[in-house]
Amino acid sequence: MITVEAWTSIRYLHAQGKSIRAIARELSVTRNTVRAALRQERPPRYIRPKRPNPKLAPFAEEIQRMYFEQHLIGSRIFRELRARGYTGGQTALYTHLQALKALVPNPKLTERFETAPGQQGQFDWSPYTVLIGETLVRVVVYGLVLGYSRRPCYWPSLDETQSSVFEALEAGLQHFGGSPKELLVDNAKALVTDANPQHFRWNPHFLELCGHYGIQPVACQPGRPRTKGKVERPFFYLEQHFIKGNRWPSFPAFSQALAAFTAQELDQRVHATTQEPPLARFAREQALLTPLPVQPFISSREALRKVSWDCLVSWAGSRYSVPWSSAGQPVWLRVSQGRALTIRDQQGQELARHELAARKGTTVIEPDHYQGLRSGMPQTRVLLTRVFQERFPDQAWFAEELLRQQPHDGVRQLRAILALTEVYPAAAVQAAFEAARTYQGYSQRFIRGILEAGGIARLAAPPSAATPVSVVADLGPYQRILEAGR
User: Fold this and answer.
1) Which DSSP string do the residues of 193-224 spell out, in sequence order?
2) Which residues 6+ apart lie within 8 Å of 451 measured at CB?
3) Of 155, 134, 144, which is closest to residue 339 (Cα–Cα)?
4) End-to-end CA, the chain
5) What is the pLDDT of residue 468?
6) Which of 128, 151, 166, 436 gives 20 to 30 Å between its CA and that of 337?
7) What's the pLDDT score for residue 460?
């Protein structure tokens, strides 16, 4: 091996135009040495050949076991080797451990991959301290990003309960108009019950949501949030370009500004990786998303309450109004964005939305919810019967039979039935009256059940003690009505 000085001199003389023979004669080296130096672009360096340490060689397998399987640190391994008869130094052991460590890939290394259109979405959230009005408020921003197009959807909330997590995820799916085939998520308790790979378990309510929307959930490896890089990085951009240094007069104003920033800035800017705006790539991805079901997801974690006859429902010590047509009916309650109470009927349709009361014991009323009851509905038996006969002259028998079978509660029930007739079509109401005569179901609960079920099976003949009922259609709706009335 030649020295660095010789290597430099050879290359210098060659650059001056001297031949290999002349350089070899001048520097007293062989021509092959000159040729080797000219082929070698970098200066020569001495590298000591690797030789196994003879004192460590007998303990090689034990060192690997203690380092890789037991995960012992160097000082502990040195102490264990001393007890086993190792006579070498600690530095030699550390050098050996460094060589072993170099054989294992760094756990931070991640293989980058690109997902196909409609294949994967990534979901996560991040808390921020935001200046709203004159107050610093903790706001949680949820983000759903489509892996192919990189199109994001952000949803703000004042808490990070499971209900809010589900609401934000549903808001993202509604924003995109479809579901990706896979959803990559973190191991938060709202989504994963046990993240240990040995006995991993999904949160059952999250699985219900995924099943409702036809999504395959995928959990990222614990301790490796970079796996969700497509959704992690945008939060940094959001913080730097939207949240820092800004203030908003109210939470709704913050929510609206966030939506506008997403649409005008994030959807339109050229993405650094794809070199395309997310909205342009989304145009190719949208058709490959799974269509959304008609009804929203209703989790068993949502509260089921019954609306009182004064059209109020209780939640967290306060009462909130519901449209009068839902009085006496069970409804689903869910807190939205940590600040509003959403009330849905049994089919998942939204009935009302209220801002949560600031203190317990408050009654929050929306006047429009009682609008249908302010039409001068009569209160007495005589006037109610007269109004019923005017509206349904051919069904006067129904009112008479109702009042006869319900002597103590007939007036109230007839008033409720008249209120229902203002909502449902006349043909549907008359069909419900006929079903009531067929099944002897003279009550407002039965009539409401028939109307909400969309009608009931037609009978071949009215029931009697001697004649069995001949059913020519499915009686499932009627069965559910009877069960609901128990």
Assistant:
1) EE--GGG-EE-HHHHHHHHHHT-EEEEPPTT-
2) 420, 424, 428, 429, 432
3) 155
4) 99
5) 36
6) 151
7) 31
Q: Which residues pair with 194 in a beta bridge?
A: 201
Structure tokens that stand for 305 in this block = 């309450």
Pair of tokens at residue 97: 């451990």
Other C-beta atoms closer than 10 Å to the C-beta of 87 total 7
Inter-CA distances, 371 with 119, 262, 353, 365, 367, Å: 48, 39, 17, 12, 7
How far is residue 380's CA from residue 384's CA, in Å, rounded to a whole number? 6
H or E stretch covering 340: strand 340-344
Convert 241-264 to b/e letters by CB count within 10 Å (16 or more is b): ebbeeeebeebeebbeebeebbee
pLDDT at 378: 67
User: How far out from the chain centre does Cα 484 lie?
Assistant: 33
| Rounded CA Rg of the chain | 38
Give the pLDDT confidence of 13-48 residue by residue, as tens digits.
988 899 999 998 988 889 999 898 888 888 887 666
**Whether 18 contacts 9, CB under 8 Å:** no
For residues 353 and 343, is the Cβ–Cβ distance under 8 A?
A: yes
Candidates 272, 149, 299; CA nearest to 209 is: 299
DSSP code, position 314: E
Could you say which DSSP state residue 91 is in?
H
3-state SS, 425-482, equals CHHHHHHHHHHHHHHCCCCHHHHHHHHHHCCCCCECCCCCCCCCCCECCCCHHHHHHH
Q: Tell me, what amino acid is at 299?
A: S
Q: What's the per-residue H, E or C state across 292-313?
A: CCCCCCCCCCCEEEECCCCCEE
